[in-house]
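Listing 4. Sequential folding, example run.
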Amino acid sequence: MKTVDIIARRTPEWRELEDEISWFRHHGVQDAARVAAFAQRYRAVCGDLSLAISMRFPANTTEYLHQLVADAHTQLYRAETFRLRRWGRKILVEVPQRIVRDPCTWISFGVFWGLFFGSLIAAYSNEEFATAVVGEQTLQRVETMYAQPLENNDEDGGRSAMTGFYVFNNAGIGLRCFASGIFLGVGSLITLAFNALFLGTLFGHMIRSPSADNFITFVTAHGPFELTAVVLSAAAGLRLGWGLIDTGGKSRRDSLRATSPQALEVAGVATVLFLLAAYIEGFISPSSLPYSLKVAAAAISTLLLLGYLFGLGYLVSWRRARAT
């Protein structure tokens, strides 16, 4: 068959592949049947390119096929591209739903708050308990930190430095809670329990101390974001560890690969909360703002958390349920 006849016979197929490439660029991979047909056309054009090179097709035709094959390859094997709408749906709808529906979240929530309030009550009721858990030197150091009113530390330069410290400190806590989950999730629960026991004991001791007003004034604003971030970090680590226990018939390596993206998403949310808490802890908590405004900051933080976890994702699900 002559070259011109081959080109004339194959040109309609090439045009169809061009149209498909354009469609995939705008819509992405959605239909499995369409992807299979696209792959078949792609393989056929690869054969056409090999034929064009061996039979020395006209240079413009060979160049055209080179470009067509390259474009089709890019669409077929491309990495997932960034799409604002898809990214927004994942972050605002899918991730919070996954967090709320994951038993690991509620296990971490129960462990943390159970130990936190239990140790708080015990430390408030019995000074010996606080000394045994935290140590007398630590208690004295914390009392000294909050002995002076916060107005005495109202310096912008110091706030910036402390914000940086809180970022690294909070990140360290979150990383330990998350990374220790690799030990079958037990490590995350132990780290979470330690932080809950330590913080609860400090809160209980400080509430009854002479520095109680200064302490409460300081911790109120950033508490919701920071403590929720600790819980979510542990939940992410627990989810990671559970993937090594309940493999669903897969190898532990494959199960870990499947579980890791979900755990990392939750850890990412916790990281954002840690950053927000650090900013509040550095600029709002130690400021001379009225305590009522700090309570308002805590209330707004709590509402934002509830809105994120229980709001948009479930609103979308409810609307879909009504539509069907």
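-- end of first protein; second protein begins --
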Amino acid sequence: MLEQQPDRRRWLSTAACGFAGIAAAALQAQHADAANTGFSAAMPRTHIPPRAKRIIFLFMQGGVSQVDSFDYKPVLARRHGDELTFDDARQLAKTGQPTRHRLMQSPWRFRPYGQCGRMVSDLFPCTAQRVDDLCFLHAMHTEGVAHGPATLFLHCGSTNFVRPSFGSWVYYGLGTENSDLPGFVTIAPSLGNGGPRNYGSAFLPARYQGTRIGAAGDAPMRIEGLDSSSADPQRQADTVALLQRLNHHQRTRRDPLARELDAAVESVGLAWRMQQVAPEILDLDRESAATHRLYGLDDPHTRPFGEKCLLARRLCEQGVRFIQVNYGDNSANPAWDQHSNLPKHADHARAVDRPIAALLTDLKNRGLLDDTIVWWGGEFGRTPYAQNNGTGRDHNPGGFTVWLAGGGFRPGWAHGRTDEFGFQGIEGKVHMHDLHATLLHQLGLDHERLTYRYAGRDFRLTDVYGRVVHDILDSPAGS
């Protein structure tokens, strides 16, 4: 027999309790997750004392060439044009045989910067001014030789299986510092190479997925459906309250849909709260003219990425745990993917260099860099030789560079080394699983204990791999 449905008058008479229901639903969901992690999203605890509270990830889609940016290899100039045999990952996958390639020198000059004397190319003159704040990892290696698998591995720790993204694991483990905003935001993500999977929650509760602001190639940075300026506030409040009451009632009747309904309840509640605060945060005109100049908003070349970096700082101040700033597009060969036109790197570097340096400067001046990790990098690097003896470089997952700043990482430090050509890591190698484990460690999360039970198995971001790279961690003051 069907349960009798309350009439409209009865629903409206109880709608005033709707917002109490929203809060109750959120607490109920938090307690459910606590059973999996031992943490509460409202009052998170960490496995170890954290050095950082949040991460800003500057994702350079397509793969920046390490030997043309931060991994100085003078032998490439001396031996420019020489043909050598390399164990090319893509060719090995196709033919199983090593391949001969022509070495290609960098078109850009390298210079020493800062007290640490790190060598940086002329591609990044502004970022170079901040090298004393940066920790370079020069022997990164990863899984996947194509953009799709490597991008998924970077974000989710797997090249093919559907897994929660890094930001979702962080949000799940730490909760949020601001209940009016999502704990995980991705700014202008690409639709390709995994698309929403790169900021999805997979089998984690749906509220831990990333909230998208804009998309690659879109000029305005906005959250669809957020603008409520034309709606009557009281009417909208009544509507939200009624919807939540309906959701709660349905939740008690249809247990098979409990997971989806819990996500709907949380989503509606968060969306309502965001409408009250997010428009102000997204309004970059509230920043001073000096700040606009710092981030390059006065230059059409730097303005798009500058706006994204400035928004990231504003979200950081408001307590968002994981903020991803994407530089890329939706084309088949994304952004930094120069197979036949390496000089194009200069256009991309010009677009991001000044905003990146501004973000580092701004965070440090505001006292935020100490407990904020800035992570820069792409899904892999590029080869030191010319692809097909042409004017570009192929994909290189075996030895590339990322850098980290703030959050307890050693400033002005370089870890690891590639061979004399910058092709393969040979010393201090760091796998992507290791980087994930180390980033979680700095947030106070043990990658082996941050798990979620699904389909009868305890899953984690790093699967059964990963190690914390202690050599790149700065000693806490007084230790």
